[in-house]
Specification:
The protein has 661 residues and is mostly beta strands. It contains four helices and 55 strands. It has four domains: 128 residues, no CATH class; 112 residues, Lipocalin (Beta Barrel); 308 residues, no CATH class; 70 residues, Immunoglobulins (Immunoglobulin-like), CATH 2.60.40. About 2% of the residues have low confidence.
């Protein structure tokens, strides 16, 4: 199929043999239209950026944008010269428009890999990253046309009308074959086609040799090659088609054109389809300390952590490392939060702010995750949970320039989410039969169990806490046994908030096998491994607002007779945005006891330690004692019930005895 701007400015569609000509949708165009996937994109005679179906139906003025050029399409974005001469990038649905880097352009931009190439309004040959940064004038060259970019070279018409070829970085420029041109060149795997300054239709080898005026024809436009033919606007405005050797010229359907035609060639169209991984890890949540179920009154001291409406536990993830280095990867989301499973989904995602290849997957406000403590004293990481998504889909589109966009989807009407405990994966015989059947249906194997367990360092018994991943909260809790066997076990309720600043990054990776939907076997050749898809989950490096993650923790105590550690520290897992609990490994930096005016212990009351700009909080235990942990030293202040007391802070500091008036 051919699409072109007629000399009547109508938007025409035509079969390659010249039959079936039709003015698509009654539209008019001022540019070469571009067919991409199932849509046409073009500059209307009203200068609006239009998108229609291939048959001209369902026309949409995309985002209200105005353009002065033919648009350039990739798997995730549209690039064009605005009527304000700004270099614009918008999503395929017209949302998220941005003037890239503040640059202006005099031509249609050209995207290849991770860069945008264009003729600046200063006529310089520019290259910028897809986010508009790191712009450079390639080789100091100037251009009078849109550049044509391949994996190794950039081809363009210089302001001196010379046909130039440079390396992709602008080095080693060559006046190719000594030829001059009036147009943007068109490059194939073996040849360069262009309009000479003599208006002849030229074809030369990639090294500049073997030049020939194809069939003796003249052209008024850049030629284009597709479906085994050369197509061009003749100097007589006729729409011409030639064999690649210049023979058998045909004036197609007696149509005339005012533009370079666009040829729908499978080699010049995006491919797309879906990969169906076995599972996706949505988040990891950690068990709080437990209470021995066999002890008297043990039920009164049960701990739990509730990730409710204020929680956004989840992770930042990407598949970029799955694909070959030659592929430029981006996230293909139209913009804004998106429910993965549709209305009422338990998790949603949006583009990450940290880069263009990741998405942030978060629990929605309506989905409640509650993790109980174990029925045993202490901290038991075999009760930690992974929340698995068992029917994910990765929709992938890749264009001829190796620009690949991926997007999460659901393989079915709704998400299938199942939590699994660490202990179940370690010993599948302990897994509930229904859960095991669900995992089996999803295709999970013992190797998958092993890979999932590796995402939790404590599942293997690790005691060292990675400071790059786990950042301590300024909050600790007393964890004390009752004095008598029949005494109730007290509980305290805390609101945990991610109010810390994470200045380091870390990541975890896991792989999962997948199947292919829609006969997308060609995509497998773009993967580093044809057998598996690799997920990379990354921690954030920015200061985190406390309201972005909050959970309610009910912390009970151990049963009578417990002799282990009596304090619990809380950490934020920066990869999964969940709270982890651990016993201290270092001595406290401030200890003391607090009594009231009657000399009685002030029990179970919040206490704050301030040293400079640092603040730590805990609660007194049943004896009115407090302990603070961390890396603080010097003079500090302990505050309780609106009263402040000076204290000495640091490892080995003397115990303070404080009396409330």
């Amino acid at each position: 199929m051919l699409y072109f701007q007629g000399t009547d400015n109508k938007l025409w569609g035509l079969n390659v043999d010249g039959t079936g000509g039709i003015n698509l949708g009654g539209y008019k165009t001022s540019s070469t239209p571009v067919a991409f996937g199932s849509n046409l994109y073009f500059q209307g005679t009203d200068h609006k950026l239009w998108k229609t179906n291939l048959d001209g139906s369902h026309g949409v003025d995309l985002g209200g944008y105005a353009t002065s050029s033919t648009p350039f399409l990739t798997s995730s974005h549209i690039y064009f010269q605005g009527t304000d001469d700004k270099l614009w990038q918008v999503a395929l649905d017209g949302s998220g428009g941005a003037n890239l880097g503040g640059y202006k352009t005099k031509s249609m931009p050209y995207v290849f890999g991770e860069y945008v190439y264009f003729q600046g309004t200063d006529d310089k040959l520019w290259r910028v990253l897809l986010d508009g940064t790191q712009g450079i004038n390639l080789g100091g060259y100037k251009t009078a046309s849109t550049p044509f970019v391949t994996a190794q070279h950039v081809y363009f018409r210089g302001t001196d009308n010379k046909l130039w070829q440079t390396n992709i970085d602008g080095t080693h420029g060559v006046h190719l074959g000594g030829y001059d041109t009036n147009s943007m060149p068109f490059v194939t795997a073996s040849n360069v086609y262009f309009q000479g300054t003599d208006n002849k239709l030229w074809r030369i080898n990639l090294d500049g040799n073997g030049g020939t005026n194809l069939g003796g024809y003249k052209t008024k436009s850049s030629p284009v090659v597709g479906n085994g033919y050369v197509f061009f606007q003749g100097t007589d405005n006729a729409l011409w088609r030639l064999n690649l050797d210049g023979s058998h010229g045909v004036h197609l359907g007696n149509f005339n054109t005012a533009s370079t035609p666009f040829v729908v060639d499978p080699a010049n169209q995006p491919i797309g389809g879906s990969l169906l991984p076995r599972y996706f890890v949505l988040t990891t949540v950690y068990s709080p300390p437990g209470t021995d179920a066999g002890a008297a009154n043990s039920g009164s001291g049960t701990s739990s952590v509730d990730y409710g409406s204020s929680s956004s536990t989840g992770t930042t993830t990407t598949t970029a490392s799955s694909f070959q280095d030659s592929v430029s990867v981006s996230v293909g989301i139209g913009g804004g939060d998106k429910d993965i499973g549709g209305l009422g989904a338990d998790f949603s995602y949006t583009k990450a702010t940290s880069d263009s290849v990741s998405v942030e997957v978060k629990k929605t406000a309506s989905f409640d995750i509650k993790v109980p403590g174990p029925a045993a004293n202490g901290i038991d990481h075999s009760r930690d949970r992974f929340y698995l998504w068992l029917n994910p889909m990765v929709n992938v589109t890749i264009d001829p320039q190796n620009n690949l966009a991926w997007e999460l989807g659901v393989n079915g009407p709704t998400m299938i989410i199942q939590y699994v405990e660490v202990g179940w994966l370690q010993n599948p015989s302990t897994m509930q039969p229904g859960v095991r059947a669900l995992l089996d249906r999803a295709g999970l194997t013992a190797d998958d169990y092993r890979d999932i367990l590796a995402l939790n360092p404590f599942a293997s018994g690790a005691r060292t806490i990675d400071p790059n991943r786990f950042v301590p909260l300024p909050q600790s809790f007393p964890y004390e046994a009752p004095d008598n066997a029949n005494d109730s076990i007290s509980t305290s309720t805390y609101v945990l908030q991610n109010s810390v600043t994470n200045t380091r990054t870390t990541q975890v990776q896991y792989t999962t096998n997948f199947s292919v939907s829609g006969g997308l076997n060609v995509l497998i050749f773009k993967l580093k491994s044809s057998a598996s898809l690799q997920w990379t989950n990354t921690s954030s490096t920015t200061s985190t607002n406390a309201t972005t993650q909050s959970a309610t923790a009910v912390i009970g105590g151990p049963s009578f007779g417990y002799t282990g550690p009596t304090d619990v520290l809380a950490y934020i897992d920066t990869i999964y945005n969940s709270f982890m609990f651990a016993f201290p490994t270092d001595p406290p930096v401030a200890v003391g006891s607090i009594t009231n005016a009657q000399g009685k212990a002030v029990a179970h009351q919040p206490v704050t330690l301030t040293v400079g700009r640092s603040h730590l909080s805990t609660s007194t235990d049943s004896k009115g004692q407090y302990r603070f942990y961390g890396k603080l030293n010097g003079s500090g202040t302990v505050s309780i019930a609106g009263k402040a007391f000076p204290v000495s802070v640091g490892a080995g500091s003397a115990k303070a005895t404080l009396h409330l008036p």
